[in-house]
Design goal:
Elements (H helix, E strand, L loop, with lengths): L1 E7 L3 H12 L3 E7 L3 H9 L5 E2 L3 H5 L4 E4 L6 H8 L8 E4 L5 H11 L6 E2 L1 E3 L20 E4 L7 H13 L3 E4 L2 H27 L4 H7 L2 H6 L7 H10 L1 H23 L3 H27 L9
Parallel strand pairs: 1-2, 1-4, 2-3, 4-5, 5-6, 8-9
Antiparallel strand pairs: 7-8
Length: about 300
């Protein structure tokens, strides 16, 4: 049981974390802090948090765990503001989609208190934002990646891991560098592609006609373009080098496909499509197999 959890950012990610802990009876009091008074007030009305605070010192006082669930560009400033009031028994974690930049910011902001910070990233979300989008079951059977630091004590990491497990999540461990390389390929690049495609269609003179005939394939492919532009701007810039490398790789794939089309090389085009189809079917089968295994058998490292 966590006596007090303080959450900076009480929207989808932070709000769902609070609701999940409450549903699991794993926390006594949740304190919410946000940039916008109306957002925090709405979280209070919805029962996501038990108390709202605008004063960082009182918000983090006696907290067992602090979660920073704001856009990654805000993390450095929040850690610097928290640092003077951070008590020895408190553990901080975050929910940012990039990790190497967060670790650099944390070291600069926290100094000799860096051992109290465990970077994290829940692999879950929706296109909706704000407290009204929060779900108590958002993290059930979803992965949460922790990128623990050398300075972290085992019980410090365990406190964060246990909180996510009580939300129903499956905890995995990577280094910050491994995390950013992986998610540049499978998360950050797809978001850029979805935004670029919708933007391309939207800026054509006959955009309305094109959207009129766009069906489920277009909708499914571009679903993530409905995500927060502010958040994905910050993520893209924070993981710039890895994302650019993935963009270059994808651009090369498109160039290859273009050449095959120009040359009307049907067998080669089909071979590319077949490899992609097989890879996706294998991936889906692996996901389904993992979901059918008991939780204690699922990988954590």
């Amino acid at each position: 049981m966590l006596k007090k959890v303080t959450i900076f950012g009480v929207g989808l990610i932070g709000g769902s974390f609070a609701l999940a802990l409450k549903q699991a009876a794993a926390v006594s009091v949740v304190t919410g802090v946000g940039r916008r008074a109306q957002t925090v007030q709405r979280a209070l009305e919805l029962g996501i948090i038990d108390e709202a605070s605008t004063d960082i010192a009182s918000a983090v006082k006696d907290a067992d765990l602090i979660l920073i669930a704001t856009p990654v560009a805000q993390t450095a400033a929040l850690l610097a503001a928290i640092q003077p009031h951070l008590q020895p028994g408190t553990v901080i974690t975050d929910a940012g989609s990039t990790k190497t930049d967060v670790v650099v910011a944390a070291r600069a902001a926290l100094g000799n208190k860096i051992h109290q910070f465990v970077p994290g990233h829940p692999i879950a979300g929706r296109e909706q934002n704000g407290p009204d989008a929060a779900l108590a079951d958002l993290y059930v059977s979803k992965k949460v990646v922790l990128t623990a630091l050398p300075e972290n004590a085992v019980d410090t990491v365990e406190r964060v891991a246990k909180a996510w497990q009580q939300c129903g999540a499956v905890v995995h461990h990577l280094s910050a560098e491994e995390h950013d390389a992986v998610f540049a390929a499978v998360s950050h690049l797809p978001h850029l592609l979805a935004y670029a495609l919708v933007n391309d269609i939207a800026t054509k003179p006959h955009a309305a006609r094109l959207f009129q005939y766009a069906a489920s394939g277009f909708r499914d492919f571009t679903r993530i373009a409905g995500s927060s532009p502010e958040m994905w701007r910050d993520i893209s810039l924070a993981n710039k080098h890895a994302v650019v490398a993935e963009l270059d790789s994808y651009t090369a794939q498109l160039a290859q496909l273009r050449t095959l089309l120009v040359n009307e090389d049907g067998p080669a085009i089909e071979a590319v499509f077949s490899r992609a189809q097989k890879a996706r079917l294998d991936w889906i089968a692996a996901i389904e197999a993992a979901e059918q295994r008991p939780s204690f058998e699922q990988g954590g490292d």
